[in-house]
Each structure stands twice: as C-alpha cells, then as structure tokens.
Recover the amino acids of this structure.
C-alpha cells in the first residue's frame, strides 16, 4: 500500500440520516470531501462521478453498481469508488483499486470511521506487490503476468539494470536472457519492445531529456522534436524522469508545457555548472549566448542529481529551428529508507513506516527490532539482522545494499534520527543513492504521553552513554541544560557497566532546581511490561533505572496535577 493522501476532490453521497452522519465525519476529517446533493441518491451519485476524483457512497453495493454501470470507462480514468454500509461496519473498495487509489482510500475511510476495509484486489489479498503499485508506469499484459505471479507460475524477470524493486515471490526468477519462449515475462526497460499476451513491461525512470530553446519556442515544436528523437532511438517516453535545461530557461513556457504534458518535472542548472560537463558537440555560439558550450547535452547528462559520471548520452543534440534535444540514460540509484519503528507498540508504528517496510527488498536492523516487524514484510524480503553494539556494521551493510541498486529499509526503534541509525547510515550514504527518512514516535514522546505533559515547554534530550561521547562533554551539556532550566530527558540512563552517570547527572540538575522537582521514570513505554513511576529529584532511585528506561526531569516550573507531570506553557491568559 502506498498510503497516499486522500484524493483532491472526494464526493460523498448518502440517502439516509445515518449515511449523512457518516459523511459529515469524513467531511470534518478531510477538507476536500463534500456531500453531493441531488434530486435523488442516484442523481447525487452520478453528479459525484462526473465532478470528483473519488466517491464515497453510503448506499447499498448493488444500488451503486446499477447506477454506475452505464458510466464505466476504464480503470485509468474512472474515479475511485468506496461503498460504506449503513452502520459503517465495512468500507468496500468497489472501483479504482490500484490505478485510481480506491484501495488506499478504502483504508483511509476505514481508519476515520472505524470500519473494516474490504479489499478484493488479488495481489493485496495475498500480500504481493501489484505491478501497478510500484510507482512506475507499467504496460502490456499486466493482468496476465500478475495472475501468473499469483498462481505461482514461472515468471522471468529481465531488467536492463539492477533497479530497486520490492521483494518479489520465488516464482519470479531474474535472468539476463530475453528470449520469447511462450512463458511469462516481466521486463524492466526503457526500450521500446514488442509486446504479447504474456509480457508486461515496467518503465524505470532512467531517461533524462536535455532541452535547449530559443526564447518563445512553441510547445508543439519542443514536444514533436522530443517524441521524434525518442522514437528514432527506440526509447519509451514513459521512462522519462525529467526534462533538464539551463536556469535561464526555467520560465520558458514551451518547455514547461511539454514537461507538464509528459507529467515530469523540469530541472534546471546554472550555466556555470553546465559548462563543467564534457559533451561531444560543444558550440561556441551557444557559449556566447548562454554562457555554456552546451545546454541540451550537458543538462541531459547532469540529470536531476548532477551526476554526469552515472549517465550515458544516448542521443546527441538534435535541433529544429527553435529547439534542441538530447537524451541520456542514468544508472539506477539504490533506495535507502531509514525507518523509525516507534517505541514498540504496533499501533504507534506509522503507516508510512509500514509502507516503506513493504516497499523494501532488503531490511536491515537489530535482531530484536526486526522481530517486531517480520509479520509486515512481504514474502521474499531478505532480512539482515545483527546484535547489540553493531551499529556501524548495520549502517555500512544497509548502505552497501543500496549502492548495489536495491530497495533497502534500515530500521531502528523510536525515531531513526534520535540516538538511532539515521546518523551513522547517512555518514556513509553518498549521492549514489536516494535516501528516504521515515519519522517515528521517539521514546521521549511515548514517555511524555504516559507521564502527562512534561514536555510542554522547552526541553533537552541528553544521552548518558559515554561509549562514544566523553563524559566531560556529556557533563557540560547536562550543566547547560540545568543552567538553562530546560526540562531534561535522559536517554541510555544506566546499564550494568555504566552505573554512576545517572546519579551524577541528577546531582547537577539538583544544584539548580527545587528538591521537589518532579521526575518521571518510564520503562518499556507502550510495551507489555510498561512501567511508569513518578518521583522527585530528592527521592529518585537511580538503581531502579536501566537501559529500557527514559528519565524525564522537570524544570523549575514543572508540577504535579492530579498525579500527572505538567510543565506550564506560560500562556499570557494564565495571568
């Protein structure tokens, strides 16, 4: 599942008071959802179909089918339709499952109304990635190849390069041979290839078209030249990642219109950067006019990431009266998602984290964290576990897998950027890979919610682990937090080998705060063995704290209210 945002325009159709109440709930949650009225429910449904990107109908499924049947076109143009029963017990994906976002919308309707999503798309039902859900255009015999994958029949995967695909089932076998023998094939290529009833083609975003133009160039001239160049080279426009040009062409209407028509962005570069790229056909005339000897070839090679070394010029500059086009193929970029799993409870794991875990072909992490998510991973996912203390090894391993062109998820608890794996991984992750950060609920937030509202004003996080940071540095930071009167959250507070640092840190804070300052100790927040203890600076017992705990020390204004730890925000209305 992609877990996309709801469609831009959602039409809500209801015939009964209960249906209208449910529709009001959705409208309150989604600003772009509105109740569509009509002389009858059928009129309202037909109106929503014509006007909206998606429809949620609080009607009987049979009635919706009969009303919409004459209006059906195809899955690429029809709006998504979700049907919800009178009691809002079920949300049924009726139309537009993958292509129209109907499955995603069904999940989202279910989440808002506390209804059970009913999705009958075959790949979703058996937990396989649909070919039309990978984010790339797919052509050819998509249904036939998808059915073969589902049925366990042999499917030959032939890719021009190692693209970061998600995990695929064992019956999809990678091969370098592209022979046609009557079997099912899944091709991953930017080339125009003959299609048959057993071949589907995924179009990777491998091509960049560099475009130069005279001021006022017609969009038709740019578009016709680009399509002719691609056709003559045997390249499919669906694999265009972007158009690229010089900064001075960033507002050129003819180029912008062409990019919009193709559904790709326009990337532009300064002339000084374009001038650094070696091209086969430099022009002094272009240099005099623009400040670089090449626009189209240099821009095509730079692409969106500015890495000409990873690109191959397939078509040199080709010109008409007012436009110039060149095309380069860019090597695959691996994909590294750094995923925060939250504090432990499954319902505090974000939908985006789940989507990234299901998008990955390789998942790397601490063994105990991977055990939490094995039920989420798709069949065929390769899991690379490691033990405590192997952070650098995990980071290097995840980056190496991504550099090899794979789709990788590196997991950690809480938020991956807070005392977790994002920092060590990004120290090694260079421009050869794409990096996606997935935030998670960090331990401080989980603990704060259990304690009350201790983080209501300025606060500081400090790790007391001196394995990688000298104690002198930690002590200086704790002192600064004490002098600044910050609420202070201690991560990694105490272990068997480090049994004195927490007492020392609490002593520093006690020198600057009242003795009855509230202190909260939360162990295993959100997990079955969760424990919450409220105490004060004078009575807190460091020996009761371990590495599964988070210690929250209030500031001089923090107080206990009805057994909850509260740090006042200091709003003016309070006075």
């Amino acid at each position: 599942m992609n877990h996309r945002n709801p469609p831009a325009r959602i039409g809500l159709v209801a015939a009964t008071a209960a249906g209208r109440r449910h529709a009001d709930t959705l409208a309150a949650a989604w600003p772009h959802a509105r109740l569509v009225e009509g002389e009858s429910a059928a009129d309202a449904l037909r109106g929503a179909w014509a006007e909206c990107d998606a429809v949620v109908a609080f009607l009987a499924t049979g009635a919706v089918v009969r009303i919409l049947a004459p209006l059906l076109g195809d899955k690429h143009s029809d709006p998504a339709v979700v049907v919800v029963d009178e009691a809002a017990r079920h949300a049924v994906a009726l139309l537009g499952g993958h292509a129209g976002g109907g499955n995603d919308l069904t999940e989202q309707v279910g989440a808002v109304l506390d209804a059970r999503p009913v999705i009958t798309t075959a790949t979703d039902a058996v937990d396989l990635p649909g070919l039309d859900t990978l984010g790339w255009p797919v052509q050819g015999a998509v249904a036939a190849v998808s059915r073969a994958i589902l049925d366990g029949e042999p499917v030959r995967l032939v890719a021009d390069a190692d693209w970061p695909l998600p995990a695929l089932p064992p019956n999809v076998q990678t091969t370098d041979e592209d022979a046609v023998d009557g079997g099912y094939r899944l091709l991953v290529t930017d080339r125009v290839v003959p299609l048959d009833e057993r071949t589907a083609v995924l179009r990777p975003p491998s091509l960049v078209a560099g475009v130069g133009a005279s001021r006022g160039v017609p969009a038709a001239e740019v578009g016709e030249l680009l399509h002719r160049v691609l056709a003559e080279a045997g390249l499919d426009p669906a694999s265009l990642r972007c158009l690229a040009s010089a900064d001075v062409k960033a507002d050129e209407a003819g180029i912008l219109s062409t990019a919009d028509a193709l559904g790709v962005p326009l990337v532009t570069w300064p002339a000084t950067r374009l001038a650094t790229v070696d091209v086969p056909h430099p022009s002094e005339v272009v240099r005099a006019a623009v400040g670089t000897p090449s626009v189209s070839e240099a821009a095509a090679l730079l692409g969106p990431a500015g890495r000409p070394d990873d690109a191959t010029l397939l078509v040199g500059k080709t010109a008409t009266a007012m436009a110039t086009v060149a095309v380069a193929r860019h090597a695959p970029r691996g994909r590294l998602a750094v995923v925060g799993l939250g504090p432990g409870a499954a319902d505090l794991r974000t939908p985006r984290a789940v989507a990234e875990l299901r998008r990955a072909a390789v998942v790397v992490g601490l063994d105990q964290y991977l055990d939490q998510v094995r039920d989420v991973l798709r069949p065929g996912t390769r899991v690379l576990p490691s033990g405590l203390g192997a952070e650098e090894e995990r980071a290097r391993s995840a980056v190496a897998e991504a550099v090899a062109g794979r789709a990788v998820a590196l997991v950690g608890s809480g938020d991956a950027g807070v005392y977790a794996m994002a920092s060590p991984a990004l120290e090694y992750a260079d421009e050869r890979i794409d990096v996606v950060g997935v935030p998670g609920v960090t331990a401080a937030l989980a603990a704060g919610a259990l304690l009350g509202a201790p983080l209501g004003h300025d606060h500081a996080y400090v790790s007391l682990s001196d394995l990688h940071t000298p104690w002198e540095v930690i002590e200086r930071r704790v002192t600064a937090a004490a002098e600044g009167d910050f609420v202070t959250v201690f991560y990694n507070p105490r272990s068997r080998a480090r049994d004195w640092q927490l007492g020392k840190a609490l002593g520093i804070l006690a020198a600057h705060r009242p003795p009855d300052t509230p202190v909260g100790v939360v162990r295993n927040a959100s997990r079955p063995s969760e424990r919450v203890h409220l105490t004060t600076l004078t009575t807190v017992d460091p020996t009761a704290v371990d590495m599964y705990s988070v210690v929250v020390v209030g500031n001089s204004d923090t107080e206990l209210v009805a057994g909850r730890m509260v740090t006042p925000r200091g709003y003016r209305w309070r006075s």
Observations:
- The longest helix spans residues 219-233.
- The chain is about 30% helix and 25% strand.
- The two ends are 50 Å apart (CA to CA).
